[in-house]
Amino acid sequence: MRKFFPVEELARDGRFNQITMKDRMADPRTVLGKDGVRPSSNRLVPSRPDASTAARVLMHGIFVGEIQALEGAGRTCHDFRTAGDQARRAQDAAAGDDSGADAVPFALKLDMARQAWDEARHVEISVKLSDWMGGEIGEIAENTVLQAACSTDPVLRLAGVNRALEGLAIDVFTTMKEFGDLAGDPFLEFCEDWMLADEVTHVKMGSDWLRKVTENDPERRKKALEFQGIVDKLFSYGGTRSDSEESPIGLARRFRELAGFTDSEVEDIAEVSLAALNERKDAVARLQAEAASQFAGR
Amino acid sequence: MTITVTPQTFSYVSFDADLIGRVAQSLVGALGLEDHPVSIEVDETTPLARSSVALSDDMGVVDNISIRVESGAFEDTRRPRQQSENATATTLGRVLLRARDRLLGGFGEAPPDDELSLAQMAAWETYCVGRLVRLGIEVNQQRWRYNFRNRHGFSDAADAAFDRIWAGDGLTWGELDEISRAASAT
Amino acid sequence: MADPYKPRAPFAPWDRRELPGSFDVEDSARRVGNYKWAEMKLFEALGGWVATVPELDVKMRLGTHCYKHAWHADLWHKRLPELREMNPDRLTQPANDAMVRFVEAMTEPEAPDQTIEKLVGVYRVFIPRFIAAYTFHKNNTSQITDAPTIRSINFILQDEFDDWRDGEMILQSLIETPDDVERAARHQARLEAIMVEAGGIAGPGSIGMTSTGASANGPQNGSAA
Ligand SMILES: [Fe+2]
Ligand SMILES: [Fe+2]
Hints:
The structure holds 3 protein chains of 3 kinds.
Chain A: E1 18-19, H1 21-25, H2 51-79, H3 86-94, H4 106-132, E2 142-143, H5 146-149, H6 154-183, H7 188-213, H8 218-234, H9 253-258, H10 263-296
Parallel strand pairs in A: 1-2
Helix pairs in contact in A: 2-4, 2-6, 4-7, 6-7, 6-8, 8-10
Chain B: E1 3-6, H1 17-30, E2 38-43, E3 51-58, E4 61-70, H2 85-104, H3 118-134, H4 141-152, H5 156-166, H6 173-185
Helix pairs in contact in B: 1-2, 2-3, 3-4, 3-6, 5-6
Chain C: H1 25-50, H2 56-82, H3 88-91, H4 97-106, H5 115-140, H6 147-174, H7 178-198
Helix pairs in contact in C: 1-2, 2-6, 4-7, 5-6, 5-7
Bound molecules: fe (ii) ion (FE2) (2 copies).
C-alpha cells in the first residue's frame, strides 16, 4: 500500500459520483439571487420554505464529509512513520526515504485512530439520519474536499484536516443541531449534539498537537497556520459558511473556543469566510455574464 | 394540446427542452388536462429548486397553465447541471396536479399559492405526490413524510394524517385543510 | 454476627490462582514489545485501507477496528515501563524479519477490487495469530505476578474475538463464487507460509511449541514455596 494516496482514488461504490471543488465552482448558477437582489437570509432554519430539502441535502453533505474524515484519519495512521519505529524506518530507508521528516509521536497516531472510530460512527449516524430524512446514499454529487486538507506534511495535515475541515464540521453541526431543535425533530438535535461533542474533541486534538509538535519550531507553526487559513477559505465554499445571514451555515464561535481556537483565530476565519462569500458572488457574476454572452452569440 | 417550453436551448445547464415537453405531455394526458395550454418556463440561472404554477386567461383561451421552475427542480443531483427525467416528472406532476385541483373544483376556497401556510403547502404537496406515485412515478415517500412532519410536528397524529392524505383521492380543499389543521393541533 | 478479627485464609477456597508462570519479567517484556509492534502495524494498515475499499460497510468496520488495535498497542506501550523497560521504543520490535515480511505482504493489496485479500490477511491470518499468542500468554504466565498483563489480555481478547467475527462475516458475505474462494485461499496460504516462518506474533514459541515440537518455555510447574 502506498504511503500517500491520491484523493481522486478514494474508493466508492457505484452509487456515488465524486466531483471536485473546481467542478462545483465552474457552475455559473447562483443561489445568491440575480439582478442584484439578494435574499436577506439563506440560513438553514425550519421557516425556510425549502427547509426539509435543504436539511436533507446538507445531511448528505455531512455524510460524505464524514466518510472523507474517516478516510483522512485512517490515512494519517498509516502514512506517517511513528517516532521510534525502527522497523518502519528501515523499510522507508530501503524504499529510498530516510529523511524521517514525517515521523509523528505515537500518541498523535492513537488520537488519529480514535478519530477514525469516531468518524466511522459519524458515518453510521449520518446514514441513519439521512434515511430518516428521506435521503438516499449517493443522491447528491460528492465534493472531494479532502484533497485540499491532506498535505503530506503531518503538521500541515493536522492544520488542514483537524483544524479547518473539522472546524467546518463544528459549524455545520451547530447549524443542524439548531435546525433540529427548532423543527422539533427528535433525532436530529440529539445526534448532532453527540457528533458535535466528538468534533470539538477532534479540533482540540488538532489544536493541541499543532502546538506541541511545533513547540520549538515557530517557522513550521507559522507555515501550518497559513496553510490552515487557505483551507479555511476553501472550506467556506464560496460563502456557504460565514457569519453573514446570506450563508446557510453560521460560524460556531462558542464551540470553536472550546476546541482551542483563540478569539483572534475565530476572527480570522470569520474574515476569510466573508471574503470567500464576496469572491464567490463576483465569480458568479462573471460566469453569468460569460454564459449570457455565449447565449447571445448563438 | 399545446405545450411550450422556454428556453428551447439551455446555456447554464445541459437540459433538453424536448424531454421536458414529452414528460409534460404524458402527464397532461394522464391527468386529463388536454384542453389547457401549458407553458413551462425554466430559470436556469439558479440551482434552487422552487416551482410555481398559475392559471390565467390569455388571448381568449381560458385557464392557461403557466409553470415556472428553477433549474434545480429538474436537475440530477448526482450529476450537477444534468437533467433528471424523474425529477422533471415529479416537479411537473406536482404543479400540474395543483392546477388540476383548482380547475376541477373542490378547491375553490383554497388561498392563492403564495398565501398558503407552510403546513397547508406541505399537506397539498403530500396529496399531489401520493397521487403521482399511483401514476407510476417513482418517489421516495420518506422524503415527503419528513417534509410533512417538519410542518405538522413529529407525532403519531401527524404521521396518521400524512398516511391519510397520501392515500387520498378526490379530497376537497376543505377536507385537506382540516386534516392538516387537526394534525398540527395535536 | 461474624467476628471481623477471626483469621481468614489469604486465598479463599475458590481462588485457585498459582504463582508459577512460564515467563520472567524479561520474557514478558519482550513478548509485550512484539505485541505492541504487531498491533501498531495492524491499526496502521486498517487505517490506510479505509480509503481504498469501496464497500461502505467495510470502510466503517475498518475505521472502527483501527481504533481498537491502536488501543491495544497503547495498553502494551503502557505496560512496558512496568516491566522495567523505561524506553518502550527499544522493545517495540517485530519478533523477527519474517514478521516484517509478513506485514509487508499483508499490506500489499491496495486496489479497490482487493477487499477480499485485505480482509483475509487481517481476519483469517493475523488476528487468529493474535488470539493464539494472547491465549498462550494468558494461560501460561503467573496468575499473580503478571496479573496486569492478564487483565489487559482479557480486554484485548474480547476485542479480537469480536473483530475476528465481524471480519469473518464480512468475508463470508463477499466470497460468492468458486473463484473468490480460490482467491481467498491462495492469498491466505501465501501469508500463512510467511507467518509460519515468523513463528507467530511473538516469534517461535508464540504458542509454546517451536517447529521442532519442543516447548519454547521452561518448566511450568516449578514449585513456588
Ligand atoms: Fe465527524
Ligand atoms: Fe471529526
